[in-house]
From TrEMBL, chains A, B, C, D:
It comes from the Bacteria. It comes from Roseomonas haemaphysalidis. This is Cyclase family protein.
Amino acid sequence: MAREAWGRWGAADEAGAPNRIGREQVRLAASLVRTGQVVSLAQPLSPASPVPKHRAGMQHFMGRDGGDYAAGAKRPGGFQFAEDTVVLPLHLGTHMDALCHAWCDDHLYNGFLGSTVRSTTRALRCGAEKLPPVTTRGLLLDVVALRGGPLPGDASIGREALQAACARIGATPGEGDAVLIRTGWQEAQQPGAEVDFTREPGIDVEAAEWLADSGVALVGADNYAIEVLPFPPGTVFPVHQRLIRDYGVPLLEGMVLKPLAEAGGGVFLFVAAALPLVGATGSPVNPLAVL
Amino acid sequence: MAREAWGRWGAADEAGAPNRIGREQVRLAASLVRTGQVVSLAQPLSPASPVPKHRAGMQHFMGRDGGDYAAGAKRPGGFQFAEDTVVLPLHLGTHMDALCHAWCDDHLYNGFLGSTVRSTTRALRCGAEKLPPVTTRGLLLDVVALRGGPLPGDASIGREALQAACARIGATPGEGDAVLIRTGWQEAQQPGAEVDFTREPGIDVEAAEWLADSGVALVGADNYAIEVLPFPPGTVFPVHQRLIRDYGVPLLEGMVLKPLAEAGGGVFLFVAAALPLVGATGSPVNPLAVL
Amino acid sequence: MAREAWGRWGAADEAGAPNRIGREQVRLAASLVRTGQVVSLAQPLSPASPVPKHRAGMQHFMGRDGGDYAAGAKRPGGFQFAEDTVVLPLHLGTHMDALCHAWCDDHLYNGFLGSTVRSTTRALRCGAEKLPPVTTRGLLLDVVALRGGPLPGDASIGREALQAACARIGATPGEGDAVLIRTGWQEAQQPGAEVDFTREPGIDVEAAEWLADSGVALVGADNYAIEVLPFPPGTVFPVHQRLIRDYGVPLLEGMVLKPLAEAGGGVFLFVAAALPLVGATGSPVNPLAVL
Amino acid sequence: MAREAWGRWGAADEAGAPNRIGREQVRLAASLVRTGQVVSLAQPLSPASPVPKHRAGMQHFMGRDGGDYAAGAKRPGGFQFAEDTVVLPLHLGTHMDALCHAWCDDHLYNGFLGSTVRSTTRALRCGAEKLPPVTTRGLLLDVVALRGGPLPGDASIGREALQAACARIGATPGEGDAVLIRTGWQEAQQPGAEVDFTREPGIDVEAAEWLADSGVALVGADNYAIEVLPFPPGTVFPVHQRLIRDYGVPLLEGMVLKPLAEAGGGVFLFVAAALPLVGATGSPVNPLAVL
């Protein structure tokens, strides 16, 4: 496969396509603010957050709480407090994939060795702490609006569909943009029903390449894996391989995009800052659209 | 004690002072962007992140990594990946305190019972998921610059010092602002030396009340607890009690502010979005200043 | 309810019925060894261990492993090693319930307050570290053999069934004995099928009282909760309440008893030592029958 | 290095030296019981359990507790309960090393590849679930009594010292024995003082080889690593390499042996059963001496 972005920002680069967000892009993005409405694009995060069957969910433990005081704990100086700890898989809920999350041919983005990601060291290269904050122009490509409803479980979204969605908002993906794709996967789920992680509408490789070649800094979606599931025969996560490894484009999965669509968001100031988790393969985020 | 903000945004409100950030504040904040420089204000987060002795640090485990492939794991379709899980105390590193974190007299902000925060339910009221995103005007009150260097370990910062710091940037805290106080605590630490969590420069109660009465939405600092340690005799976390419980002001602790000062940031667009951790007493964040 | 064992071993006692195992019982138990065959009565413990839907399973993380060396980690002095960490719910797999696990009327066994079990302190009374090692005569009450197969999902096992099972081995529960009840619940489960934790064969309250009045030190079974599920109308875990709280009898749940039956074990030396987990409500164990 | 035990119990063997415990050994061990006194040889296990600086300690979280009820939680059918979860490093406190814990030359005991121990699969070979229960004759080699007090921090214990300790109890290590070595390391620690894990008295390689050649099934000690620390120049954990990898002898570290010495235990029935943690590199245990 081609390795389009390797070397583009230097042999030592671990940030990838977010390098495309220069100060000019930030200034432009800030200038897009009109109404001042801020829309959070994150799922609630809890032990009830859905996970594929082969993965563990989040756990959340209180180390001190109001029950302690009800049971008689002292309150020196009147002070009462609660604190807690989470056991958090980093690819749960709304999260950003770091560039060390996916690769092939034993090489990560920019040619780093896959073997730099280990149990003892965690990711020495391309960890979540290397992802710059994403503060840029956001585009909502609303395929749900385009199709008149959430897409079926295995619908492949191609380049032409994305272009049609762009036409709806009168904008074209460009240098440093964050592109958010609404497939309807999440909003079509029934409350209480088990979530099916084996089928989801998502983009195909050609669409991914078109976005990356357009210069986008980040691709997000309201589904579990950005790309269509099941994969085309003979492939496994082909969009991950192309976007993350070859183009250095971080993915932002599990977004909540219906409220943004309802607020009329098409082109907006977008902000998503991964936690600087050293050597992590991803990070939970609470991305924002500022309209 | 007075309960200045109780009822101000309705009896059911769990968001507190961030309610002060209206659309007008957001628009104004966006208009402050000049150069487009984005400064992250978060510490790296890792098992090496310093913690007080009575608390556990973060743990970080790889569930799959490059070592698996080096050891012979299969790669169907060529796809290789890594994933990981953290055991994360929520008051570690750079984090926002939710309004259920601290209270007194068995009542949280806005009169909710402390007993609504339990092992089984976690925080039913005022959890981190109730904190709105903070996208507003940020002010850096640089007490380090004012005093010519990091403050000593137990320096109390009063209202007048904050006012002097305001004068330096020609701004006054107002409705919906995020105020960030640079004490120098963190930057004065020696690399490799154990961090002393029993002494830190920080604000006193009067300074806190002045900020809250000025209408700020959030108070952040580059120390561990916003307020001076040791506490004044006979008190325990008095600023937490006043700001969080009485005024509903979330605190943003453990910030990294030296790079912002060095970038000349005084008045800027500030963005910090807590993760929507349901029922949590706090959230790690990666706050941003956009200059 | 009566509180049969309260005060029996002093007002400060936190060990309960295992106090019944005196040195005489130990000597007698050791003298039962005939063939020298040792049978482990524990389930394998792994992330695949079945759990009720409302609970989280075990997680198991490698902190260092052979993959690290395959990926190039150094081996000073030739030494290579692996180490790991588990996130382990204490009522998973084969485990012993501590006397602080279940109670009613706000009082634990021997009158300790339920409020001594808190998030901050964990169990100040009757924690797993207070359970003495159980080294005593074991009796296998094989209801499966008695009935000719595993019992149906909601079969209530009464006193008479237990007495009939006793008759099969020519022994009667007595002072300090460990009684193990084979219901067939576990062995009837189909491999790969989801385990139903809402229905299980188990003893009723009268059977439990008969065992406790006989002076047993511990009651074990090959099911999830010792007692029959669903509970009799209007009750919730009535056997737990009676045995643990009123009689101070620890329960040993999730045992594997078929291999013991197949080895001809009826009366034997039984050994089960809870881990001294300070303030814990239970402990995983690997109980042994020595024939 | 020689690989003395490889192939001895077949090419597929993953149990190692505990295979030496035949039924005859078990019967003999049971016959040693005289007084019926049972002595637990385990440390209490808690977040306060000492750990080397580079490792994380145990964490212990209540998922439900008495504080919940004090705070108003419902109690259907009168039933109240508490449950908890531990985050437990498996080489903490009193624990048994599985045969996959230590190796060299990329090969585990019996020639299995080190690369079979991975993040994703955990230990496919020689995990803790492969360790048979150890029910055998125990010998206490009391070097503290021999020397008149706890040994200094870096005292190397050689074969002759072990032989002198054997002479004190009139026994010689033989086929299938569990040998427990009291160095005094733990009992010499001052309460509240930080434990030094860089220096400890322990056996040297010659002593280890003598024990293994004598046919022992297990070697335990009251120190952190069985062997002397610091290591002889140019070596790293040489006793681990020899005993675990070459002889297939599991180690039982962090034992509490003073109470056993005080009870006059020299030759006794010894029982230690690792938890069947699938693919784990070790297991916490509560070993027992029955006198």
